[in-house]
Specification:
Low-confidence stretches: none
Order of helices and strands: EHHEHHEEHHHEHHEEHHHHEEEHEEEHE
Shape: globular
Helix content: 40-55%
Number of strands: 14
Largest sheet: 5 strands, mixed
């Protein structure tokens, strides 16, 4: 089954999949449901990850995210897709880490060796990390590596996060409660317990589950998009797509094609939408990290203003699925200023949407917030 759509309609489908449309659920869903429905949230910047939950919900507040992660522990912060830090649902860890971990551990071997982390050092380091955290955790990175140094394992610089990443991808540790501005590390099984991790799956079952989860969060998409998002081998992803081929609808749009799940077909009945959908996306937002290319969301002449290199994705102003500018916030005492820098002059009807986003940001953070739009282009 093939359906022809415009680029605007495809962007709408992607917005809907990412819970970014006006038709998104009304916010009664909890943090874990949001995280699970979008396939995890990029979280090397913890505050940005919290704001990514905000823009995909309506009634949650900032404290709800911390409640879910630290008290309820229904989500955890750990290494996930592409070997980067994510917020993930705790009950996905039992099948997701065995799928992702071996791929990223093997792929990072050369870099670890360059950093002095051969297999012997890794094995000893991970053994001591387990023992130290079992007896003294939670610990900050500095505290943890001070303890390792006492055991004769002296690591500096990038060797430290690479060893921690390996320990997390092997299912040993995850990030625990923050201590001020510093995250701490804990043993995964102590933190969420075996019963919360969910059930392990065979590799084929895990690839199939991940593919369905990806398509429900990012469709319209391709196997190449999923490979870029996940960091997993394209050959195995293609096999998973073939396995569920009868569950897919092919979408043709300008010069390209992609697929959605048939279970998402009802979204097509909502096309088109006439009210502009204005969203303030945080740094590293997954809407811009879920595909091999960003050309549907970002015009080529503005691409470097979103990502000038080094993996940094700046906060963006999104209108109907297209990036029209960047934004930043400036906090002064108990007030937050939101400064929007459009790429070009904004249509007057977009200001209402921007004001609504800033009002919602104030509600979410519990802090007075004002909007300032720069007019020099």
């Amino acid at each position: 089954m093939t359906i022809s759509l415009s680029n605007d309609q495809v962007r709408f489908l992607r917005l809907h999949a990412q819970r970014l449309t006006l038709q998104s659920p009304d916010g009664v869903t909890g943090v874990v449901e949001v995280v699970k429905q979008v396939g995890g949230i990029q979280a090397q910047d913890a505050s940005a990850a919290t704001l990514a939950v905000r823009v995909r919900s309506a009634k949650l507040v900032v404290a709800d995210v911390e409640q879910a992660r630290v008290q309820d522990r229904t989500i955890i912060r750990t290494w996930g897709p592409r070997g980067t830090l994510h917020l993930l649902a705790s009950d996905d860890i039992g099948w997701l880490l065995p799928l992702l971990g071996p791929v990223f551990v093997a792929g990072d071997r050369r870099r670890r060796e360059e950093l002095g982390l051969d297999e012997d050092v890794c094995a000893r380091g991970i053994h001591f990390i387990h023992n130290v955290l079992a007896n003294q955790g939670p610990l900050t990175r500095a505290e943890l590596f001070e303890q390792l140094a006492n055991q004769g394992i002296h690591l500096e610089g990038q060797a430290r996060p690479h060893l921690l990443g390996r320990a997390a991808l092997e299912g040993l540790i995850c990030l625990g409660p923050d201590r001020g501005a510093e995250p701490t590390y804990v043993l995964l099984n102590d933190w969420i317990g075996h019963e919360r991790k969910g059930h392990p799956l065979s590799e084929d079952e895990a690839y199939t589950k991940l593919t369905r989860r990806y398509l429900s969060a990012y469709g319209t998409a391709t196997p190449e998009d999923q490979a870029a998002w996940s960091g997993l081998p394209l050959k195995k992803i293609r096999a998973a797509w073939q396995h569920i081929a009868d569950q897919l609808i092919e979408i043709e749009f300008t010069g390209a094609r992609g697929w959605i799940l048939k279970t998402c077909a009802s979204w097509l009945d909502e096309l088109p939408i006439h009210t502009p959908i204005v969203r303030l996306l945080p740094r590293f937002d997954i809407y811009l990290l879920g595909y091999r290319k960003r050309d549907l969301a970002v015009q080529s002449q503005y691409a470097r203003r979103i990502n000038a290199g080094g993996g940094i994705i700046h906060p963006t102003v999104l209108v109907d699925g297209r990036v029209v500018g960047t934004w930043k916030s400036k906090r002064e005492k108990n007030h937050l200023g939101v400064i929007v820098e459009p790429f070009d002059e904004l249509a007057s009807e977009l200001y209402e949407g921007l004001e609504a986003e800033v009002t919602d940001l104030a509600r979410f953070l519990g802090m007075p917030t004002t909007l300032h739009v720069l007019t020099s282009f």
